[in-house]
Amino acid sequence: MNKVLKNSWALFLGMGCIMMAYGFQGSLLGVRAVQEEFSLTATGFMMSGYFVGYFIGAATIPNIISRVGHIRVFAAFASLASLVILVHSILINPFIWFLLRVLTGISMVCIYTVAESWLNDRSSNKNRGSVLSIYMVILYGSMGVGMFLLNLSSPANFQPFILVSVITSAALIPILLTKKKPPTFKRIKAMSLKDLYNASPFGMVSSFFYGTIQAALFTLLAVYATSMNFTILEISIVTFLLAVSGAVSQYPVGKISDMYDRRKVIVFSTFGASIFAILAIMVSRQMYLPDGLATSKTWFYIFLIFFSFCSLPMFSLILAHTNDYIPKEKFVAAGAGLQFVFGLGAMSGPFLCSIFMDIVGSNGFFIFLFFFHALIGVFGIYRMRVRQTVDNPDSQFVAMPQTITPAGIELNPTTEPIAEPEKIIDDEKDSTNK
Question: Mean per-residue pLDDT for 380-386?
Fold first, then answer.
């Protein structure tokens, strides 16, 4: 573990800054959109731009990295992400913000791809599980910390946007000054949608629905809390609890899924999330009223934590379930395919959720979450009746962030062996000497 931190501290530090800025930015834009009186539909449309950009970037960034190289691409797109957030504070319009969110999505998928390629290149079969665990803790932990930065200045001011830009720019320093050689970029092909569906219909369909859930959850939770008259501190607490409790739940839920039928665990988890979404609506009651008249938010926090415990491990569960039905050599390709399908669903998530909220009010947010989680559960029950569970000793649950790229999926210890970093460096030296 110490060796992992020693060899990759610059990258971990840089990614920590990036995720801190990302967590801060998501809450900031949601709160500011409500303060600017954007309609709920316009807000959802604007927030969905990030996932449109993420989807576009995932398809185009590998070509750019192959031509230009990791360091230049990382520097260029991190700088773009830093620049874009400043433009948000100057041009306040839902459509312009949508375009800016597209650029942010492209930038972020580039940053993830470069970081995960770097980690994968410098990992060995012995430590890549540890590398992935540290990476995940840094991603969720830094994002959670970033959400509390919302309290430093009013979202109505321009200072928070400058702070996001400063933190993003600071992420460049440790990475660009590292002495480590950039990784050798390897293209990873995804399974075709037809092959992916044939291998695991439940995995593919649930990944699509879960994409809509995750996109709406992380982009519109701050919008929901603001519309319910939460204070800035309370909004920070809500978004922090979502990120951290979801990260903590990955390992116990994953352990259970390795012991029992993974589809049953997914079904129970998704129906559990549906139940806690409804309970969150029931305890919300008069939370939106001014101080002295508002009902307590304690039970809301508790049910949100339970919802997160059930919901956030779902992507890793779906990935592990899909791997149950394919040989080990296809694990990475299947993961890339699931990430593609997840992205398709994510593009529509915030917009669809905002329509629910526009029709029935703020609690349409949790009605949306209930509905799509229930869809996953119902389809899971159907698939359990038409297909028997198989026992694949190569497949096991590995906690992964929803933002993982195909390069990051290779850090999964259950995938094919990867070359030792020392061997890669020796080969590079030999080729140079020749």
Answer: 87
CB 376 within 8 A of CB 206: yes
**Rounded CA gap, 15 and 179, in Å?**
17
User: Tell me, what DSSP letter sits at residue 138?
Assistant: H
Number of compact structural domains in the chain: 1
Higher pLDDT, 359 or 121: 359
pLDDT in tens, 179-190: 666 666 566 666
Rounded average pLDDT over 120-148: 79
Answer whether 55's CB lies under 8 Å from 349's CB: no
Question: Could you give the C-alpha distances from 269 to 272, 303, 304, 312, in angstroms and in order?
Answer: 5, 14, 14, 10
Does the pLDDT at position 380 exceed 70? Answer: yes
Task: Report yes or no: 102 and 50 within 8 Å, Cβ to Cβ.
Answer: yes
Tokens (6 digits) for 45 = 């449309």
Give the CATH number, domain containing residue 94.
1.20.1250.20
Helices (H), 155-200: 159-170, 172-176, 193-199
